[in-house]
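Follow-up to my earlier ticket, as requested here are the two runs.
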Amino acid sequence: MRTAAARRGFLEAKLRALWSEIAGAEFAGISSPQKLSTARGPAGGLLRLSVDGAHAPQIQLMLPQLIERINAALGPGTVGRIQLVQG
């Protein structure tokens, strides 16, 4: 259990540290990663992403690109889905 918890905490911290590079300056200012839930198998984990309400449609169009960028930075299969939450 400790290994899994440490890994998840490490991935969340790394994602937050790299968020401006992954999302780009424009989107990093209006969104921030809240929680990364890892999952076993090819489906990947779930990322809860906090977004300013008015910018949610803009971010939603970019979700496939964000998933690709996150997986490139953190490893394949890290994120399979992104859930937007108003922040």
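Run two:
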Amino acid sequence: YAGSEHTTETVLISAHYDSRGSFGSVRAPGGDDDGSGTTALLGIARTIARRGVRFRKNVQICAFAGEEQGLYGSRYYAQELRQKGANLTLMVQADMLAYHAPGEPAQLGLPDRSVFLHRLVG
């Protein structure tokens, strides 16, 4: 989505859509892990389209494959952005949104930096 401001600043909203066992393990978290993030990503895209949301900054929505095998899709895309000199100012990774292990408290993982998202919406 092109931003309403003339800027190269870009926000990336992403998720991983794959799920299969790796490195000798047959365990694949599936719907609890990758499926929940991808579903949220699709819901965000649908809401943007239905409501006609416009952003001040450029926004990209991207789903990646190959997470369980070593982040192949997202690693490749990050390298491509770096080579192009992209001005990526924020990345929101929707991963494990519905995952909950029995007996564990609810968890929220945040990066060491935060950005005010309200500055992005115009």
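The only thing I checked on run two: The mean pLDDT is 79. Let me know what else you need.
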